[in-house]
Amino acid sequence: MAETIRIETDPRGVATLWLARADKHNALSAQMMAEITAAITAMGADAAVRVVVLAADGASFCAGGDLRWMQAQMAAGAEERAEGARLLAGMLDALDTCPKPVIGRVQGNAFGGGIGMMAVCDVAVGVEGARFGLTETRLGLTPATIAPYVVARMGPAKARRVFMSARLFGAAEARELNLLARVVPEEELDAAVEAEAVPYLSCAPGAVADAKALIRMLAPPIDAGVREATIRALVARWESPEAVEGITAFFERRQPDWII
Asked: pLDDT digits over 73-108, tens only?
């Protein structure tokens, strides 16, 4: 039984996959990534599921990588690091290729891998006041594994605005960057998500799945070769002196030596 997520499905076939590590700001551990991958794969194959809502408990949507997972990655060798990156890549691929429409219910902040999860939703609705950021370069790393999905969602020109600087941005800018389709007050979030879900219930499920697959076919491919290239890039970055300094500084609660 899953320990880091839970699934609720209503009689209409609207299934909500809840990230359930509120005490850890829904940071992505190896267990959580594996459980999300298994759950979304099962929902994609379940004829009773018509729509998937990706939601989260607590104050944060997803804080990115779990600290213990990061520490394990820091101590690992190249192959172990690659396997860790493949967990995230596999989870994002499962979400991206799910034949059911996936709606993001973004009730709070999202960073790093959380941005990647928003990018693979077919549509994401977020609350006013939420903060977002691709913060990897502060640690001497890069947002490599999530990059294909983030760039596909934002487009290269908009991605350049936030992909490298690690600066934080608000919900209004997230909408401008195409990460969010709508921004609403917190009390209107569930109604806004429902408004996105309801139209699919009048559509033929097979046609919806085929239409979604058609979009992927016509878009630049995010295939196994692309995913492996991003994994190699991330492993190389993990082995850089900057990554060692950045991550060490983070856990020692000091500034890395490149800050001016």
From this structure: 777 788 888 998 999 999 999 999 999 999 999 999
Q: How many domains does the chain have?
A: 1
Rg (CA), the chain: 18
Q: Which two tokens stand for residue 51?
A: 């729509």
In a domain, 239, yes or no: no
Residue 39 lies inside a defined structural domain of this protein: yes
165: containing domain? 5-186
The predicted-structure confidence for 146-169, as pLDDT tens digits, reads as follows: 999 999 999 999 999 999 999 999
CA distance 16 to 9: 6
Q: What is the CATH classification number for the domain harbouring 147?
A: 3.90.226.10
- 56 forms beta bridges with 19
Structure tokens at 214: 């058609």
| CA–CA separation, 124 and 249 (whole Å) | 34
Q: Is 135 within 8 Å of 64 (Cβ atoms)?
A: yes
pTM: 0.96
Domain presence at residue 218? no
Q: Establish if 132 belongs to a structural domain.
A: yes
Task: Give the pLDDT band (50/70/90) at residue 52.
Answer: very high
Specify whether the CB–CB gap between 230 and 89 falls below 8 A: yes
